[in-house]
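Backbone geometry:

***
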Amino acid sequence: MFERIVAAIDSDPDRSTRVEQAARELALACGSDVLVAHVLDVERSARMVAAAKPGVPPALHLESEEAARALVDGAVERLQSAGVRAGGEIGAGAGSTARELLEIGREFNASVIIVGARGAHMSDLLLGSVAHKIVHLAECPVLLVR
């Protein structure tokens, strides 16, 4: 049923660990292939900052390609060490993180996307979190881990 898993990780170590653990357990149970996906964090433009809603950070930290590669490669290595067939992909961060992750999922022909939740607060939903967008826009099942 879940032959092709996209595990969407980010720079939060706790959230990414939970996503990785869920991907490992599901992949081992189902004999799945896993694609660890991460989208680069990029600086927001001045126009985006001016249009930001209250509570939305005005800028995201810049993330180097090397840091992103190390993050993805580490997760892939741990999954492979556990006996999971795994690879990795880094999105450029050129647009919406959620849409980029969804496109990665479509290209991989994902049967499920695993994504971590930032929290359980209603404000996360109102602010348009990446997980919320993926849950509502994905064409395949989404496993939201907390």
Observations:
- The beta strands are 4-8, 33-39, 85-91, 112-116, 142-145.
- The radius of gyration is 15 Å.
- Residues 10-117+124-145 form a domain with the Rossmann fold fold (CATH 3.40.50.620).
- Helices lie at 13-30, 46-50, 65-81, 97-108, 122-126, 130-137.
